[in-house]
Amino acid sequence: MQDEPLHELFGRHRLSPAQRRIARYLLDHASEAVFLTTTDIAERVGVSQPSVTRFATALGFAGFPEFREKLRATLGEADDTGGHEGDLQRLVGTEIQNLEAVRDALGDETSVREAAAGLAGSRPLPVVGVRTGAPLAGLFAYFAAKVHPDVRLLDRGGSVLTDGLIRAADYGATWLLAFALPRYPSELVEPLTWARERGLKVALVTDQPIGAPAELADVVLAAPVGERFAFDSTAAPTVLTMVLLHAILEALPTREQARLDEFEISAARRGIFLTD
């Protein structure tokens, strides 16, 4: 355990949502955390002090002081081996850690499979994303429309968004997919609340499994954003979105999966793309 990298150590254990937040903080602020007490870390993460202690014992340490020694040893190894790594390389390194967190979380596929089955069966399928969530919503809608018969992208906020959800519900929608990334748009609250009151199930792609806006969803699919860049990086949420698309394709009936092949044949005939 002494020589094991932190992200591998965390990935070997099934951590609670609060413990995952602690792990994420420690990965992002390791050089600072070696000087902090359990109370200091609890205040920075927004959890209780006993939660930090339980986090250390959940990883197999006798207590937090022993875990802190592991943290210091890890930093020492990083100083010995990573001294020539540039600032921009370290930024990319944090994204690799975020992707590893997504990979590790997929050890339990229950939430993704549940969301995929519900979204695949919804006719129509509303896809909601405004502000920072709009690009991912558009990406999902673009690919989903190749196989799903009725995808409706709703990327404008306010009453226009609620109007779109009302029409989708009137035509039989049973699920919707929403994207909410920092900084979470307040304009999502009213339409998602309305959708749940109307009986629609909400699948949400976001960065935190608990708290707002996760409380607005029936199924939460969480992937961390990269917070060290000047603007948040959504590399991990993008990969999670592609995972969800893959699972939806598997959940669709065979006749609808065949639409993907039909599109490729049509695209080749029309010369849509420069290469096959």
What can you tell me about this protein's structure?
Helices cover 57% and strands 9% of the residues. It has helices spanning 6-11, 17-28, 30-33, 38-45, 49-58, 64-81, 87-105, 110-121, 134-144, 159-170, 189-198, 235-251, 254-270, and strands at residues 125-129, 151-154, 175-179, 201-206, 219-222. A 5-stranded parallel β-sheet has the order 2-1-3-4-5, sandwiched between helices. Helix 9 (134-144) links the parallel strand 1 (125-129) and strand 2 (151-154). The N and C termini lie far apart (48 Å). Mean pLDDT is 88; it is low at 79-83.
Uncertain regions spanning at least 5 consecutive residues: 79-83
| Helix/strand order, N-terminal first | HHHHHHHHEHEHEHEEHH
- Amino-to-carboxy terminus distance: 48 Å
How many separate domains make up the residues?
A: 2
What is the CATH first-level class name of the largest domain? Answer: Alpha Beta
Strand order of the largest sheet: 2-1-3-4-5
Query: How many helices in DSSP terms?
Result: 13
Q: What is the helix fraction of residues, given as a range?
A: 55-70%
Strand content: 5-15%
| CATH superfamily placement of the largest domain | Glucose-6-phosphate isomerase like protein, domain 1
Q: Do you know the CATH architecture of the largest domain?
A: 3-Layer(aba) Sandwich
Q: How many beta-strand segments?
A: 5
- The quaternary organization reads as single chain
Q: Look up the CATH topology of the largest domain.
A: Rossmann fold
Cα shape: globular
- Could you report the average pLDDT, rounded to the nearest whole number? 88
> What would you report as the Rg, rounded to the nearest angstrom?
21 Å
The major β-sheet equals:
5 strands, parallel
